[in-house]
Amino acid sequence: MTAAEQTPGLELPPAGDATPDDRPLTLSEEHGLLLRQVAVRAEELLAVTADGGWPAQELQALLTYMRVEVLRQAVDEERLLFPSYARSAALERLGRDHTVLHLLTETLATSATADARVPADLAATTRELLAHLERHLGNEEAVLATQGPRGQAPGTTVLTHRPHAWFGLSEGGGMDLDGLPAAQVVNAVADRLLRLSPGERFELRSSTDPYAIWQRMNRIRPGDYGFDYLQDGPDRWRVQVTRRPAPA
Question: Which end of the chain has the least Cβ crowding within 10 Å, N or C?
Fold first, then answer.
């Protein structure tokens, strides 16, 4: 049983960002989705450390999800949701909890680059992170419920128009743009390309020319990305995007 399944009051929604009846996720359901995804990645990491191995791939997967989805969610909550509630000691405690999430995530990142890699220490930090996240989400639900029906606070994706489902569609070395609603394609791809490391490549596949994505990236990061057409229509387009290294 995952940590998410043990948490009272945290529902586990479908993998996407809407319920079966197409209703957008509430904040409670959104929290359940995030906790489930973190728990799955943490359990994969802990399975390797239990055998004394070093989970390089599993650690990177956990770090990426924490930074891209969970920590970004925390920032969105503080910016978009917290101002709607009266300032209180409880609300300030939630903000401090977000800071602890940042610190624990960076502790994991330090483990990945340390010369001496100790699987037992990494496992302990991972368990601490998961326990803190589980406890924090429960506390946050309780605090926000004091000013409205429990679980009825809107999910941040309703306000940011950035569905969590984008993460699963855009991970790996490429992305099929036809899998995204047309109105979200440019934003979703730009979000992923901004996470490329210098020198990293990413392939875009589409039934239409993704030229608008080049326009967006060239506007927000002029000269930082190279776009090479591997297939130039008329029915399919494949474009290799490269994040150029910073000038020496």
Answer: C
